[in-house]
Design a protein that fits this description.
Bound molecules: 1,4-dihydronicotinamide adenine dinucleotide, magnesium ion
Number of strands: 20
Shape: globular
Oligomer: single chain
Radius of gyration: 22 Å
Number of helices: 15
Distance between the termini: 57 Å
Strand order of the largest sheet: 14-15-16-13-12-17-18
Largest sheet: 7 strands, mixed
Length: 487
């Protein structure tokens, strides 16, 4: 952070002055305090905690810390609702999902503002990515609800019962949609726990559930920290779907071993973004920037390891640094902002620790001159060059706006280096040759391989990992499978 000056007020990237374009927050009406949404009602709890806005640490609301008993109760309520929900014709369940999708689209501005307020991501992203995709997931899975027998030919799909779902803070509403939409389409009821730093859009979603007149108990939201998540894992659920850290994912897997509960895990990543010397250079630089600075790098599939073919190393790094200098870092609610606030103090400290390790180990750091606000959690877009494979910044998931640049000479070497990681969630390839794209995609051990693009999502496309990035797929027809029993 030493390279970055601090000053009060709205941040202005050096060299460019943009008039502030703040999105109004008037559209969001928050309650002072939230309970748990269980059986279509708000239940009180003993303990609460405060959720804040990462852009200035201002408190937004008090949120319930659900105890193991609260969680058990929510699961029992979901269990009671499950027979009725499963018995509905698929076309009826589809109507509710279509309704939810439509309401999300109608209320998207309200949700986008709240997502940026509570999570710190730029409004441009919550408005143009998170919200449209969340609605699209409900639309997409609504379409499967009455076609399950065609989805799994010659098999009989049956719902599992109650799904326990635990989600992270980087795409709060979108991860909720990824989890809830297929579960409901297949005829399950759910108890979902949002992350402790970003519970507010999940709580606002309860109002969408009410508006859609979903039968009580089909969707239940319990808030709280890791203890609440652990209680949900231990509760009487038929399946756990988890997205978050590899560490917690492993703990959940150990906990569920031998219980017969189904499990899907979507964990961390350390994606290789591989740039060949025959690529369209300017597009590749855009893809590199999108790959790592999108959502402040709080992205499990972020292109955090850049592999550049040696012959074009200098122009790529040069263009990248120039492009980084134009990134506008600051208020997430400003429509011009490209890079918003870091989600939490804890995450900021983790990023700072890993960046310090990168400097100590001998990598060369570059941060464009930019002015960060005084209050809140901020980290300037960062790139490291002179990185060795063994450095922590090349091995560990940083989950922040920090890129490590490495080089390669041949496609074989690129594959070997890219696969030299315990993770395997995503990868990117930039080249003009279609044959090379296919050659690389065959060899990269990653669930998703993007070619001449990065971080592109669609509800019809399955997403998930290899190795320590987890197992099971979300999205597409593959995403239905973890929510049905096939006989
Ligand atoms: P985390 O894995 O602790 O949190 C994710 C979710 O799991 C939250 O809802 C949390 O309350 C819940 N949880 C925590 N402990 C649990 C337990 N024992 N049993 C059940 N649920 C539990 O992740 P955290 O601590 O927020 O972030 C740490 C690191 O994990 C990040 O720096 C990042 O590297 C990685 N991460 C990866 C994500 C991804 O999408 N792949 C998402 C979030 C974090
Ligand atoms: Mg944790």
């Amino acid at each position: 952070m030493t390279d970055v000056a601090k000053r009060g007020g709205a941040p202005v990237p050096a060299g460019w002055t943009y008039a502030p374009a703040p999105e109004s927050t008037d559209i969001v009406r928050l309650q002072e305090r939230y309970g748990l949404y269980v059986g279509g009602e708000w239940l009180e709890t003993k303990e609460h905690f405060t959720t804040v806005a990462p852009r200035d640490e201002s408190p937004l609301a008090e949120v319930a810390q659900a105890s193991a008993k609260d969680v058990k109760n929510a699961v029992a309520v979901a269990r009671d609702a499950s027979a009725g929900w499963a018995a509905l014709p698929g076309s009826e369940r589809a109507k509710y999902l279509f309704r939810i999708a439509r309401i999300l689209a109608e209320r998207s501005r309200e949700f986008a503002v709240l997502e940026s307020l509570n999570g710190g991501k730029p409004i441009k992203e919550s408005r143009d990515v998170d919200l449209p995709l969340a609605a699209a997931h409900f639309f997409y899975y609504a379409g499967w609800a009455d076609k399950l027998e065609y989805a799994f030919p010659n098999r009989t799909p049956k719902p599992l019962g109650v799904a326990g779902q635990i989600i992270p803070w980087n795409f709060p509403l979108l991860m909720l949609a990824w989890k809830i939409a297929p579960a409901l389409a297949a005829g399950n009821t759910v108890v979902l726990k949002p992350a402790e730093t970003t519970p507010l859009t999940a709580l606002l979603f309860c109002d969408v559930v009410r508006q859609a007149e979903l039968p009580p108990g089909v969707v239940n939201i319990v808030t709280g920290d890791g203890r609440t998540g652990a209680a949900l894992v231990d509760a009487d659920v038929d399946k756990i779907a988890f997205t978050g850290s590899t560490e917690v994912g492993k703990a959940i897997q150990r906990r569920l071993a031998g219980t017969g509960k189904k499990l899907t895990l979507e964990l961390g990543g350390k994606a290789a973004n591989i740039v060949f010397d025959d690529c369209a250079l300017d597009q590749a630089v855009e893809g590199i920037v999108n790959g790592i600075y999108f959502n402040q790098g709080h992205v499990c599939c972020a292109g955090s390891r850049l592999f550049v073919q040696e012959s074009i190393y200098e122009p790529v790094v040069d263009k990248l640094k120039k492009r980084m200098a134009t990134l506008r870092v600051g208020d997430p609610l400003d429509k011009n902002t490209d890079v918003g606030a870091i989600n939490s103090r804890m995450q900021l400290e983790k990023i700072e620790e890993l960046v310090a390790a990168g400097k100590d180990e001998g990598a060369e750091i570059y941060q464009p001159p930019c002015v960060l606000p005084e209050r809140g959690y901020w980290f300037a877009p960062t790139v490291f060059t002179n990185v060795a494979q063994s450095y922590r910044i090349a091995q560990e998931e940083i989950f922040g706006p920090v890129l490590s640049v490495l080089t390669f000479r041949t496609p074989e070497e690129a594959v070997e280096k890219a696969n030299n990681t315990p993770y395997g969630l995503s990868a990117g390839v930039w080249t003009e040759k279609g044959s090379r794209i296919l050659w690389m995609a065959e060899r990269l051990r990653a669930g998703v391989v993007w070619a001449n693009t990065f971080n592109r999502f669609d509800p019809t496309s399955p997403f998930g990992g290899y190795k320590e990035s987890g197992f099971g797929r979300e999205g597409g027809l593959h995403g239905m499978e973890p929510y049905v029993e096939l006989t």
